[in-house]
Amino acid sequence: MQILTPHVYWAQRHSEIFLRVDLSDAKDLDISVQENNTLQFKAQGHGAKGDNEYKFSLEFREPVRTEINHKSTQRQVDIKIRKQEERWWDRLTLQEKKPLFLAPDFDRWLDESDAEMELQAKEEEKINKISVESRVRKDPYLGLKRGYLFMYNLVQFLGFSWIFVNMTVRLFILGQDSFYDTFHTTADMMYFCQMMAVLEVINPLLGLVKTGFFPAMIQVAGRNVILFVIFGSLEEMQNKPVVFFVFYLWSTIEIFRYPFYMLACISTEWKLLTWLRYSLWIPLYPLGVLAEAVAVIQSLAIFDETRLFSVPLPALLGGSLSFSYTLQIYLVLMFLGLFINFRHLYKQRRRRFRSRKRKVQ
């Protein structure tokens, strides 16, 4: 049987060498590091020249440990070797000329500065983990706090799920006719959920969660203005289709947000749910603000006509100041709040997936 050399790809870190041998269905593996600091590899498998016996040897640039970790899969053989000293090598082999069968493994390749950053990130992660664990041990009320947050997120999830399912079923059964009675069928539950949501402003102040106080206040206050002031106080608004779109967008966002936080309370993560939590808001949040803005605009004429919440003016000026002027200012603040919250959510998403990417690497 012909003896051939497989393709070998390499990468390094300060303390380790990674080799990937392009040999599928490998068997009869014989891998060892000799006393002269040379790696010997021999195996049978399917490579570039079909089924054959493949072997190669590499004399490393500097001493390595004799212990070898390797794993054979249907596609390749992965080998990990630890260096004797944790330092960066300018090349892999003792000889300056690179063997023809050896090439960089660009899937794992890092230059020295990137490897140092990765090493620093790992050290920081260890320090943060130790710090968190030390704080956990010192907090006798941790279980109580987690239990409270778990129940809060569970109740909110069930409430918004009821709203979402109710509206979805009515939409399939009644079609567009369901737009006009959304408020009367779901308002009580929405009132309950939004009053409960005030706790999301209080929780950061008490140190129960790490979420910023200001973004939470913007969202909760904005929704409560729409629900209690625009929809709740104006009967003329309660039969408009915009109520359906506002409630549906709110509930769609929350049925993914609350279970994510609920599972986080018990240190559990579902990858699909995590992605939905940090991605769905990108289209849904601006659409929700747009629907809220439409509701405010539709209510302006009604407030002008009914003079509800109008502010009396001094006798010299006569009349009263319509509440619609306040709502026009609120419209401007609403889009400013959209920018602030969108920026906050984008930073959360980038931070979340950047840390996950580092863990994978």
The percent range for strand residues is 15-25%
**Gyration radius, in Å:** 31 Å
Structural class: alpha+beta
**Largest beta-sheet characterization:** 5 strands, mixed
Order of helices and strands: EEEEEEEEEHHHHHHHHEEH
Dominant shape: elongated
Distance between the termini: 39 Å
Q: Give the averaged pLDDT, no decimals.
A: 88
Uncertain runs: none
Summed up, the helix count is: 9
Assign a percent range to the helix content. 40-55%
Number of strands: 11
Strand order of the largest sheet: 7-8-3-2-9
Main location: endoplasmic reticulum
EC number: 4.2.1.134
Protein name: Very-long-chain (3R)-3-hydroxyacyl-CoA dehydratase
Membrane topology: Multi-pass membrane protein
Structure characterization notes:
This protein has 361 residues and is of the alpha+beta class. It has helices at 112-138, 142-174, 182-196, 199-205, 213-231, 242-264, 271-279, 281-306, 323-360; strands spanning 3-4, 8-12, 16-21, 24-33, 38-47, 50-59, 64-72, 77-83, 102-104, 311-312, 320-321. The strands form 3 sheets. Strands 7-8-3-2-9 form a 5-stranded mixed β-sheet, with no helix packed on it. Helix 3 runs antiparallel to helix 5 (213-231) and helix 6 (242-264) packs across helix 8. The two termini are 39 Å apart. The mean pLDDT is 88.
Helices and strands in order:
Blueprint lengths: L2 E2 L3 E5 L3 E6 L2 E10 L4 E10 L2 E10 L4 E9 L4 E7 L18 E3 L7 H27 L3 H33 L7 H15 L2 H7 L7 H19 L10 H23 L6 H9 L1 H26 L4 E2 L7 E2 L1 H38 L1
Parallel strand pairs: 1-6, 2-9
Antiparallel strand pairs: 2-3, 3-8, 4-5, 5-6, 7-8, 10-11
Keywords: Coiled coil, Endoplasmic reticulum, Fatty acid biosynthesis, Fatty acid metabolism, Lipid biosynthesis, Lipid metabolism, Lyase, Membrane, Transmembrane, Transmembrane helix
Organism: Pogonophryne albipinna
GO molecular function, one term: very-long-chain (3R)-3-hydroxyacyl-CoA dehydratase activity
